[in-house]
Design brief:
CATH superfamily of the largest domain: Hypothetical protein af1432
Number of domains: 3
Number of strands: 13
Helix content: 55-70%
Shape: elongated
Strand content: 5-15%
Distance between the termini: 91 Å
Amino acid sequence: MQSSDSDIRSRLLAVRLPAMPQILLKLLEHCQNDDAGMTDLAELIAKDPGITSKILTVANSSAYHRSGLKVGLEQSLAAIGTDMVKTLVISESVFQIFNNFSHANATDLRGFWKHSLSAAVTARDIATCMGYPHAEEAYLAGLLHDVGRLALLAAAPREYAASFMAADDASLCAVEQRTLQITHAEAGAWLIERWQLDSFLADSVLYHHESAERVGGAHPLVRIVMLAHLLSSLPADDAAVISAGALCGVDAASLADISERAVLQVRRAADYLGIDLAGADAPTPPASAPAPATPADLTRERLSDEVRNMVLAANAGQTFARRQSEQELRETVLRSARILFGFDDAVMLQMSPTGQALVGCPVGVDRQRLAEFSMPIDGAGGANTIALAALQLRPVYVKRGGALLGVGEEQVLRMLGTDALVAVPLATAGRCTALLIGGIGQGQLSDLQQRERFLQAFAAQAGTALASLTAERADDSDQAATVARQYRDASRRVAHEVNNPLAIIKNYLSVLDSKLLRNEPVLGEMSILNEEIDRVGQIVSGLAELQPATPSGHRATDVNRIAESVVALFQKTAFMPASVQIVLRLEERPGDTTAGADTLRQIMMNLLKNAVEAMPHGGEIEVANHGFLNRDGRLYVELSIRDTGPGIPADILETLFTPGRSTKAGANRGQGLAIVQALVRQVDGMIMCRSSRTGTTFEILLPVPKPVKVAASPAAARSQLMDSL
């Protein structure tokens, strides 16, 4: 059955090229290793035409080519980033597992891979020998020179399966042209051309089957790939190879050396990846013969297991993340481990806070004795293989009848009721936080060791979830401690601040009593009492918000009016002893501030009370409004309160506004000035203190309301414009 050229090309657009399962396995291992870098990934990817083609396609797609087209593999990898590379590798692995191509045809890719990698390393050596400046481009061209064969196999597996296993020569191209109306050289070049590279890479793929005479004057990359293809298919002394070598200026001896090095490099790569090349170049067995299990089949099975394990581990991680408590999480981890790994039973030991021992985590009503179980990890008390899992961050296996067991290990075996166990570290950030210990029969050891990577992936998910919950608990504890501290400070602040209005109320009640006895009017006193009672309520309500209560509102406050009222309050009550004189020095013009009246009153009352207490033997207090002050381009009203007391010691002055720094006794000592500073900051003001042996002065800068800009009338605007001209 023949397919039209347009049909094949449309199918080529949608194909996903198969990759060597061994390389995918290695790449998956790297993708699950957080320490794996781009260099390691690039080295592996550069060994497989399918994955390399995928990377180049993505890197040169519209999503990434904004900074220029990427001819080199390393440049392409850098462009798309490590995370995207890992995503592509995992997606390609999943696709290859569930794609019909892998299972229905069971095509052996070893011969193709061997030839492609051989051509890649050969092309690089030829480029170096010729002095061609882009040796890595030559490697890439050699690796991809037969990528069209992969594409045709993926696009037309039934039509092309037999041709894929045939020798790669001119007769193959004739068969491809006859059956598919397109050769693998044309298909590969057509796909590469879609990357729109500023390179002769597509040409080198298109002409790699041409004769030496036809490419004699072609670009060096075209000649390099043609020679690399021949040298990877034929002996170094073949006439066609010698003729092609002459076009590249490479003599017979150099060709032999290049060929030998290529064979050695491919063999080393195959050994590292676990690819068995025995029989890779042999013809396909007859269709009637039962197909034996090949290394490729076994590798695909391993790849399938790896992908399935990744999915299961990720699903377990999602389950763990939904647990709300450590106890619930431990129960889920132990239950999941029993199901997934066939454990007869399982327990968990947690690292002690000192890191010197593993202590039991009781899970279940019949495991409460675990709370009293402890196992040192420094080897004290006899042999301890289990501790190695925590120290070396790797699973360890313990069984009866083997090496001498420590008492702790025998206790764990008896608790589990098994003859063998596996201890798996639950680690995060390179540190073991707990051990998952599963009990198994000795016959299960071999199977579990084969599933060790899944076991580690499961443990990693559990360790991450456990660390996350522990961190949340620590955050909650810190948050609770912070809230408790804030409420303690707020309680002390409220207790301190309430004393002022309560004392005023007490004193005014005494004044009220005496006036009532004399039948004098008490309207003013009653008004002050109401204000102070309201202020008590505001201060107490501030406790709920953990901040000093400040009334809302943006109306301007007259500093002179508030100063006069506060001074009058002190003079009329027992706050101001007869030995202390208070003087008011106020500007005649109004000094408005954006600070609220109650806030300003609270600030002044604290400072006046401190000034009175600083002069037990009498003195003078001056309350002054110094008018407007420009500081850093902003306008303030400057208010000062000065006393003639003995001054503040330097050590206390240094941390004056810190709660607790005071020379006074009492439970709430040192709170007043800290509250004053907080109130001043809340109104966006500033407070400074100057002190000497002759007294102390507090200077307060209170912000002035910004003038409201009124739009000029049209006539005024015209007048301003004429004046400016």
